[in-house]
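WARN retry 2 of 3 for item q-0093 after timeout on previous attempt; input resubmitted unchanged.
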Amino acid sequence: MSVSADDIRRVVHNIWSTQLGLELIDTEVGAIESGLVEQNVVDAAAEYSGDFKGLLVHRCSLQLSLAAAGSAFSSDREQLEISDARDVVVELTNMTSGNLKAILPGSCEVSMPYLLDQVPKSSPILAEAGFLLQGEPLIVTIYEVE
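OK item q-0093 returned
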């Protein structure tokens, strides 16, 4: 069994709606990818090891991460620090990577999530899904790492 874009969508929608009370809108990755390059982004990752070696990357705009943090902490965006937004994205990455681990091929372990400095450019993509929240982008990608 392998992970598909539909699997990512199902897991991400479930986490965002149940944990944050936020409803994401599915969108094509290509339609929002260029927007992430031009704005402040928060990237977090978790590594898979074992039979499947890969990297799950949760990439979103700073504004989307602030909206998620506001919901998580029941606070107005103005009361939040950027570190709060980053912490929430790291925790969302943790939940997403753990849920998707169960349907990855073979047996694997998942690392603790962490903030990512640079998204991999040369690793093949296993599955990817794009989302919008109030016009702000989110891309969740699973890369295969050799």
